[in-house]
Design goal:
333 residues, alpha/beta, Rossmann fold, 2 domains, 5-stranded parallel sheet, 4-stranded parallel sheet, 11 helices, globular
C-alpha cells in the first residue's frame, strides 16, 4: 500500500493489518517511554487546508512517537493566501525531502490528485477531503468497536473483524465524509450499518450504498444496536434550511437524555460514539456524551494509535532490518 486515500478499495486483510498494528502501537501508552525509533530520519508534513484540532494534533503526535521529524503547514500566513496552487505547494514540500504528506483539503479528490499526479514522490494520507472520505477516522472507529466487542466478550480484539455487529449512524449524512469512510470499512469488516437522518440530509444515490436508511431514530435504537454514532451537524457547509430549527432537530434526531435513559432501562450495551467536535445539546446531550457508554475519549486515544500504524506501514513496508524489533522503545534525549 503506497498511499491511504480511501476505505472503499481497502481489503479486509489490509484493514485488519492496520488495526492489529494499531493495537500494538496503543501499548506504548502503558510504557514509561512512549516513543519508537521506527521513523527516525523520516519527515512527515501535515498539510491542512482546513481547520482541525483533533486530526492534526493526532497525526503530529503519531509521527513524533515514531521519531519522525514533523512539519506543520497551514494556508493562513503562507503563500497559499497569495494564490499559490496545490501543485506548487506540494513541490515546495518535496524539495524539503518529505517522506509522507498528510493532507486535509476542502476539495473532494485533492489527496487523490496529489498521490497520482506525479507532482511528488511521497506517501499521501487523506486526513479528510471535502465531503468525500476520512479514512483514518473510520479506522479508529473500527478499532474502538473491536475493543467494545472484545471487552464485553472478555477476549483479545487482535485478529478479529466486526462480523455481526450492528452500527447505527445518525445525523448529517449529506455533508459527512466520516460516514462515507465508515460505511465502506464497517461493511468490509462484516458489520451491518443503518443510517438515520432527516430526509433533507440523505444524499442522492444512497440506495447504492451498503447501508439501510431510516428516518426514525427511536425505531433504530429499539433494535438494540451495538453502537450508535452521532454525526456533527455541519453548519459551516449548510447554505439552506435543512431542518425547521435546532430544537426540532435535537428532539427528533438527537441523542437526548431521555433516549439515553431508554437505553439504560432496556439494559442494552450500546456504545455511544461521536467523531467530534460535538455540538452538545444539538446532536448529542451532555449526559450522553459524558456517560459511561461514551467512547469519545477512547476514539481520540485510538486515533493516535491508528495513525501511528498507518505511517509505520506506509513508510517502512514492515521492513525489519538486522532483526531489530520495530516495537522496542529506547530513551531519547
Amino acid at each position: 500500500m503506497k498511499h491511504l486515500l480511501s476505505t472503499r478499495e481497502m481489503t479486509r486483510a489490509e484493514a485488519l493489518q492496520i488495526l492489529d498494528t494499531a493495537e500494538r502501537m496503543g501499548e506504548l501508552g502503558q510504557q514509561s517511554v512512549r516513543k519508537l525509533p521506527a521513523l527516525r530520519g523520516r519527515t512527515v508534513v501535515n498539510l491542512f487546508f482546513e481547520d482541525s484540532t483533533r486530526t492534526r494534533i493526532s497525526f503530529e503526535t503519531a509521527a513524533k512517537r515514531l521519531s519522525a521529524d514533523v512539519l506543520n503547514f497551514s494556508p493562513k500566513g503562507s503563500s497559499v493566501s497569495k494564490g499559490e496552487s496545490l501543485k506548487d505547494t506540494a513541490q515546495t514540500l518535496m524539495a524539503m525531502n518529505a517522506d509522507a504528506v498528510v493532507i486535509r483539503h476542502g476539495a473532494s479528490g485533492a489527496p487523490q490528485q496529489l498521490a497520482t499526479s506525479g507532482w511528488i514522490d511521497a506517501a499521501v494520507l487523506n486526513a479528510g477531503d471535502g465531503k468525500h472520505e476520512h479514512p483514518t477516522q473510520a479506522l479508529l472507529d473500527a478499532m474502538t468497536l473491536r475493543q467494545h466487542r472484545a471487552r464485553l466478550a472478555g477476549v483479545d480484539p487482535t485478529g478479529t473483524d466486526l462480523a455481526g455487529m450492528h452500527v447505527v449512524i445518525v445525523g448529517d449524512v449529506l455533508h459527512s465524509r466520516v460516514v462515507r469512510s465508515n460505511m465502506w470499512l464497517l461493511s468490509t469488516l462484516g458489520a451491518r450499518v443503518t443510517l438515520v437522518a432527516p430526509p433533507t440530509l440523505v444524499p442522492v444515490g444512497v440506495q447504492h450504498w451498503p447501508v439501510e436508511v431510516r428516518f426514525d431514530l427511536d425505531e433504530a435504537l429499539a433494535e438494540g444496536p451495538d453502537a450508535v454514532m452521532m454525526l456533527r451537524v455541519q453548519r459551516e457547509r449548510m447554505h439552506a434550511a435543512f431542518f425547521p430549527s435546532e430544537t426540532e432537530y435535537a428532539r427528533t434526531w438527537g441523542l437526548t437524555h431521555e433516549r439515553l435513559q431508554l437505553l439504560d432501562a432496556a439494559g442494552l450495551e450500546t456504545a455511544i460514539m461521536h467523531p467530534g467536535p460535538m455540538n452538545r445539546g444539538l446532536e448529542i446531550s451532555s449526559e450522553a456524551a459524558d456517560s459511561p457508554r461514551s467512547t469519545v475519549l477512547r476514539q481520540v486515544a485510538n486515533g493516535v494509535s491508528v495513525r501511528m500504524a498507518c505511517l509505520y506501514l506506509l513508510l517502512t513496508g514492515e521492513d525489519e532490518t538486522a532483526g531489530a524489533d520495530p516495537f522496542s522503545t529506547e530513551e531519547t534525549r
